[in-house]
Every structure is written in structure tokens, then in C-alpha cells.
Specification:
Keywords: Membrane, Transmembrane, Transmembrane helix. By secondary structure, the protein is α+β, with helices and mostly antiparallel strands. It is built from five helices and seven strands, in the order H-E-H-H-H-E-E-E-E-H-E-E. It folds into two domains: 74 residues, no CATH class; 79 residues, OB fold (Dihydrolipoamide Acetyltransferase, E2P), CATH 2.40.50.
Length: 159
Amino acid sequence: MLWATRIAKRTLLMPSIPEWTTYLAGTVLVGLIFAGRALYSRSIEKTPKHIANSFVSGCCVGFVCFLNSYDVLAYLLPSATIHYDSTFEVTYPGPSNGRTSRCEAGVRINDPKTGRSIRLCTDKAALERQLKPGMSAVRVTAQSNSLGSYISGYQFIYQ
């Protein structure tokens, strides 16, 4: 699960992907499987409350399993390595690192293939080493396929 979350932080999906619809449909499907098992099991307790609890438990398990599945597929499926120059924006503080912390700095990169932007986490020291005065673009290395792009690296450049 943590591996999928790390991948999702560097992945841009195509706008045409029905991400949340798929997550919800998979969640309900797993919940129905759990409820069906509770209904047809040999247990003595087949009350509606027991079946509803099984459905909700199945929905929770299904949601955790399906969350970030498109991001992982975009990472794992065969893809072409592409390089492109893009605009960027440095933000202080950076993107969220969880419920209570944030990165020191962030780099917002626009992806021309997906038409979306992504905020990547960095720290001030690394940013000061890489970003020199007059640099106005970023060269991005990405693994790209029909689901989206996985940003594998970036470098600030003069344009």
C-alpha cells in the first residue's frame, strides 16, 4: 500500500480515465462478495446486521485494494521513455506529506501529454543546488503509456 502511494505521488493519469467510478464499483463488488459469503456461510448468525457488517467490511477492504490501482498500472505496464521541456513553479511550502506534515518546497510541473500538472516534493537545499538564476524551464523524463505518465526525473534548464 505504501509502495502504491509513493508511485501515485509521481504519476499523472489521463483525464479520460474513470478513476473514482472504477474505485467505487470495485469497492461495492468486493462488499457484495463479502455479504454473499456471510449469507451463504454455515454460521448460525445470519441476521441483517451481520450481513451489513460483512458488506461494510468488504467495502473497506475493496477500497484499500483498488485505491491507486490505475497509478500502479501506469507504472507497471510497458511504456516509452519520453523527455520534454515544460514550465515549472516553485512553491513554499511544498505538497502535503501526510496529515500533519508538508515538504519544505515543491515543484509544480505541467505535463503536456495529460494536460495536467503535478506537484513534486523537494527540500530547499536541493532546490538551491539545482536551480540557478535565469533557469526558466524544466526537462522532465517520464515513462508514458495510454494510462498516463510516471515522472521518473527532472532537471532545471535554461531556455
